[in-house]
Amino acid sequence: MTASVSRLAALANWLRLYLARTGRGTRVAMALAGAVAALAAILAAETARKRPKYRGAVEAPERSWIVGHGIMFLTTHETRNDWAFYLARNHLDLGEGHTSHLTAPFAPPLIFTTSPANVEHVLKTKFDNYVKGPVFADHQTQLLGHGIFNTDGDAWRAQRKTSSMIFSVRNFRDHMLHVFSRHARVLVDKLDTVAARGTVVDLHDWFHRFTLDAFMEIGFGTPVDSLQADAPLPFATAFDQAQSITSKRMIMGPVQRRILEWWNGDAKRLQQCIKVTDDFAYRLIAQRRADPNAGNAQDLLARFLAMKKPGSNQGYSDEELRDVVINFIIAGRDTTAQALSWAIFELAQHPKVVAAMREEIARIVPTAFDSTTDDGENLDYDAVTRDLVYVRAVFSEALRLHPSVPQEIKFAIHADTLPDGTPVRAGDGIIWSPYAMGRLTELWGDDALEFKPERWIGENVPQPGPYKYPVFNAGPRTCLGQQMAYLEGVACLVKLVSKFEFEVVNPDEVTYRTALTLLMKNGLKVRVRRYVSPAPVAA
Ligand code: HEM
């Protein structure tokens, strides 16, 4: 921002000196007016070209003359998800349904929907017609390369097949649960120390370190022990910043984003961040290639190292493995760390929910309250994956209001019609917002904005299904790690809630930073106290 202002000031100063020296004020003013008029005409024509010309295509509100929703896109970046909710709410209140059009000069034409039927159509029924495509690739390739989040077709299928091998029930039960429990134990010990001192900690940062440590072991067979370090790893800081910069591109055309990023310095910042994340990934790959025992390992990277590329006799190159590492760190670290952060944020404001969790934990895994035993290794798999119904509901409910992937986009290959009758042209982008969908009374009832795990529980309570609740995506590209996320999230919540009380010291500052995932912009600063469970009443 400051750089932009000083560039503008320098330009104005140069113009002032030039006019004073040459005495060409009138001619320059006329030329400038002509240039502004020409630019306005180009922008208006470009925006009009993107506008739907057929009946039944309703434009989203908040449209400006000449640039469509362009100004809204730019000015609402910081509050992107709430803007999506506002847009959906406003559109529904106007009686215009769940789907609207967004237009801006040089951006791809976009259809924004919160309709579960439309989401099902895009993610499952017409899966082959809706792809990540070249626009998404233009935005994300710098960071994600050709990893699983940023590919379609055979390249995606091959990566999905290889990576799905680690997500087996046997691996969950015999390996992952123990890894999560062990790293959660480190977190508990650290929290114990700060509870004794009464210091404030940023739990958001600690959760990212916890999930990174666990995933580095599970995914790449390489411990990093970042929870033990005094500060976040430089890699992690660079990674978060790179995500934030690339997510701004979501609604920009290629020319527009290049100019803007050059102007505001993001282009240079992104390059620097990617250098840090790449160095981290390449070091990891070199270590594994040099490890004589790597051949016996069963982790994700080991499987890719041992694999030949589809239709070829060659193994994956370092560049391709770099893409695997970066994509899976986003998948395995960020999403679950953020779900845990938002869950604790909600729990700190809902003591009755915490009491209900403790009641369930006391019934099903009572050893969790015992600080003298290392319950870490002993958490029961069936308890975590099946019996702790209320704790699981807390995790689902936190994700409903705060989905780790708050917004998604796919592009149409061929013209089509959505189930609600909205026509789609070839090349149109379809955006849906799990964040907005999770808050709509039309989908969740009058108490949609309340944090209420009870809504998930009960014999006759229908589960929402993945299209009304597309938090884990759905269809052939459904999240591969959903079960793993619940395993990690529930195990961690059991340990934390049975041992600590959390007071959020910056509740008014807690908000998201617009990025691919739902990072907390100012962290989650908490004061921690040891929870002492009441002594059992003698019968
Ligand atoms: C609360 C936690 C999680 C949430 C909310 C979540 C959500 C999602 C979403 C929305 C997608 C679709 C992204 C897209 O295509 O643009 C996705 C895909 C994926 N997720 Fe997760 N995820 C979570 C945890 C995990 C974990 C722990 C892993 C394990 C590594 C994982 C692995 C994946 C993979 C590999 C894909 C790509 C699937 C494909 O394109 O075929 N996720 N996830």
TrEMBL record:
PROSITE patterns: CYTOCHROME_P450 (PS00086). This is Cytochrome P450. One of its GO terms (molecular function) is heme binding. Signal peptide: none annotated. Belongs to the cytochrome P450 family. Heme binds at residue 479. It comes from Allomyces macrogynus (strain ATCC 38327). Keywords: Heme, Iron, Metal-binding, Monooxygenase, Oxidoreductase. Gene3D superfamilies: Cytochrome P450.
